[in-house]
Amino acid sequence: MDFIPEETSQAVSIPHIQARKPEGAVASEVYREALQGQFRHQLALSPEVLHLMKIHAEATYPNECCGVFFGKEGQVREIHLMQALENSHQSQQQKRFEISATDYMKAERFALENGLDLLGVYHSHPDHLAIPSVHDQQQALPFFSYIILSVINGKTDHIRSWRLDDEGVFDEEQISIY
Ligand SMILES: [Zn+2]
Questions:
Q1: CATH at 48
Q2: How far is ligand 1, taken at its centre, from the CA of residue 2, in Å?
Q3: Rounded Cα–Cα distance for residues 154 and 93 (Å)
Q4: Which residue range forms the structural domain that includes residue 123?
Q5: Is position 1 within any domain?
Q6: In 27-168, where do the E strands start and end?
Q7: Which residue of 14, 64, 91, 169 is surrounded by the most CB atoms within 10 Å?
Q8: Left, alpha or beta for 56 (phi > 0: left; psi -120 to 50: alpha)?
Q9: In the chain, how many domains are there?
């Protein structure tokens, strides 16, 4: 994959996971990986945003971190800014994250006040691949991009992004660094 910035200087190959459920179980699908580079949506991250997300994800390890990001909507979503938020999940922060309604509202207001779009949510998967869980799917909102950072043994291993399609299934997005 070519979206890992060179500062990590590791061309991380993403393990190929069999995402599909058996025939006939389409309704319960959680995500669709891009096949042969066919992405329906694209994200462009500033190097600084990516760097800050990684720092956050590694600092909260082995718990999940979470936050939001802002930028400009377009054919390619450009992400200029991120805000680290508190994981407000009460009991299972190693496996779950939750963003409080207040934090969402503040993020919306910040976007409005700064002429930016609130484009999505990032969170980390400690010692797990950057693929959405059923829980992630259940919590997800339409429109938002969901960036997931896989943090293995405290270090960011890879990052992927997902967006719900009309059927509520996560479609993988292409990430580039601008
Ligand atoms: Zn998750």
A1: 3.40.140.10
A2: 23
A3: 15
A4: 29-162
A5: no
A6: 31-32, 41-45, 66-72, 76-85, 117-126, 145-152, 155-164
A7: 64
A8: alpha
A9: 1
Q: Considering the domain boundaries, does residue 51 fall inside one?
A: yes
92-128, pLDDT tens digit by residue?
888 889 999 999 999 999 999 999 999 999 999 999 9
Q: Is residue 12 part of a domain?
A: no
Percentage of the chain lying above the pLDDT 90 cut = 76
Strand 41-45 with 76-85, pairing: parallel
The answer as to whether 94 is a domain residue is: yes
Ligand 1 centroid to Cα of residue 87, in Å, is 12
pLDDT tens-digit readout, 6-18? 444 333 434 444 4
Whole-number Å distance, alpha carbon 100 to ligand 1 midpoint, is: 16
Calculate how far, in angstroms, residue 125's C-alpha sits from the geometric centre of ligand 1.
6
Provide mean pLDDT across the span 54-74.
Answer: 97
Assign 90 a pLDDT band (cuts: 50, 70, 90).
confident
**What's the gap in Å between 156 CA and the centre of ligand 1?**
15
Rounded to the nearest angstrom, the distance between the alpha carbon of 14 and the centre of ligand 1 is 17
DSSP conformational letter for 15: P
* Ligand 1 center from residue 146 Cα (angstroms): 9
CA separation for the pair 153, 62 (Å, rounded):
8
Q: What's the pLDDT at 7? A: 43
Look up the pTM and report it: 0.84
